[in-house]
Design a protein that fits this description.
alpha+beta; Butyryl-CoA Dehydrogenase, subunit A, domain 3; globular; Butyryl-CoA Dehydrogenase, subunit A, domain 2; about 375 residues; 3 domains; four-stranded mixed sheet
């Protein structure tokens, strides 16, 4: 067994850390306050390989392994939760299904465009106003064939990147009879007639990552925009989410690490009862727990990512990794605020933003309850 990153992964970690330090961190507060996406960072992400992590090199991507993907999202999350979320919705959700299941024509047309960072991003719309966790039974957005086109009608909810995307991969019902083979993924360019991207949702956190309701009113796209075989949408979705969960867990570790670093600094600087906060054992124990939890989460995220890289089953491990890392971030950032006392509750201190950003992570890409369902199904099947 070897717990070391390989040389390439070590170099990659350094590159992404420097990128996050220079391009994300200094703007993290501003993008949150102004509710604006950090375009400048995305423009610079292309050449570094951060806009094409799931895209093969033939189509302009960097096609990094899953451990490197986890490394990158920890660093990006450390720099700015909002920008990290937009990047993961692009790399994982918005491009991986095309790279894995799309036709050569779709790959050639769309992947180089979005991997360059010069254009807009990718997005994936699964969730609907009436269905999030229950994708299989709940999706009512439908696509019907008419000549050489699909006609799409319905509505999606909580779509990350919709307003800053070239296209939205849309999960639709192609067989009205229902069942596990009744869903399909279709690529819908965002300039399609009949597609409405509604104003950005007013969110608690991650405010530099735009999230939208989207509606489809007789949207017509060519039959060739189907991603993968008709009826495979559910399976494609589940496997996209397995990988996405590792990224969300990694972002959570980055947020927790950033909050802990802030807490350590604050504990050293702040005096109470004639000594530094860091001299109180109660504070030291909090810091010890934070460090322990971050280390444990990272080790398990790497394990899940490694299993994927080995081509082995990793669905249960991705669920455990996401569940632990996201709930860990809640606890760690809660304590980071506690160490800051009243100042931790102020927008002047970054831990307040990190706490709001981390709150999404136990909800998006499968709630904690859904992760527990996935894990318990594996346990009971064993
Ligand atoms: C900021 C943000 C960004 C997002 N980005 C995207 C995106 O890009 N694309 C996309 O498709 N979606 C996106 N989502 C949607 C997100 O994935 C869903 O919100 C999430 O999957 C939960 O679905 P829901 O909100 O419909 O809640 P529901 O499914 O209605 O669940 C409500 C509650 O019931 C619980 N619950 C549901 N079923 C069960 C069960 N069987 N057992 C126990 N408890 C259960 C849930 O865990 C939750 O606590 C985003 C959401 C947010 C907030």
């Amino acid at each position: 067994m070897n717990f070391d990153l390989n040389e390439e992964q070590k170099v990659w970690k350094k590159i992404v850390h420097e990128f996050a330090e220079k391009e994300l961190r200094p703007k993290a507060r501003e993008v949150d306050e102004k509710e604006e996406f950090n375009w400048e960072a995305f423009r610079k992400a292309g050449p570094v390989g951060l806009a094409g992590m799931s895209i093969p090199e033939d189509f302009g991507g960097s096609n990094v392994d899953m451990v490197s993907n986890a490394i990158a999202f920890e660093e990006l999350g450390w720099g700015c939760g909002s920008t990290a979320l937009a990047f993961t919705a692009h790399n994982g959700l918005g491009t991986a299904p095309i790279a894995l299941y799309g036709s050569d024509e779709l790959k050639k047309k769309w992947l180089p465009l979005v991997a360059s960072g010069k254009n807009k991003l990718g997005a994936l719309a699964l969730t609907e106003p009436g269905a999030g966790s229950d994708i299989q039974g709940g999706v009512i957005t439908r696509a019907e064939k008419s000549g050489n086109e699909w006609i799409i009608n319905g509505a999606k909810m909580w779509n990350t990147n919709a307003s800053i995307a070239e296209y939205i991969i849309t999960l639709v019902r192609t067989d009205p009879k229902g069942g596990s083979k009744s869903l399909s993924m279709i690529l819908v360019p965002t300039d399609s007639k009949g597609l409405t991207i509604h104003p950005a949702e007013k969110k608690m956190g991650l405010r530099g990552s735009p999230t939208h309701a989207v509606s489809y009113d007789n949207v017509r796209v060519p039959l060739e925009n189907l991603i993968g075989p008709e009826g495979k949408g559910l399976q494609q979705t589940l496997s996209t989410l397995d990988a996405g969960r590792i990224s969300i867990g990694a972002i959570s570790i980055g947020l927790a690490r950033a909050a802990m670093e802030a807490a350590v600094q604050y504990a050293r600087d702040r005096k109470a009862f004639n000594q530094s906060l860091a001299d109180f054992q109660a504070i030291q124990f909090k810091l010890a727990n934070m460090e322990m939890e971050i280390e444990l989460a990272r080790t398990y995220i790497y394990k899940a990512a490694w299993l994927k890289d080995e081509g082995r089953p990793y669905s249960k491990e991705a669920a455990i990794a996401k569940l632990y890392a996201t709930e860990m971030a809640e606890r760690v950032i809660y304590d980071a605020i506690q160490i800051h006392g009243g100042y931790g509750y102020s927008r002047e201190y970054n831990v307040e933003r990190m706490y709001r950003d981390a709150r999404l992570m136990t909800i998006g890409e499968g709630t904690s309850e859904i992760q527990r369902l996935v894990i318990s199904r594996h346990v009971l099947a064993g």
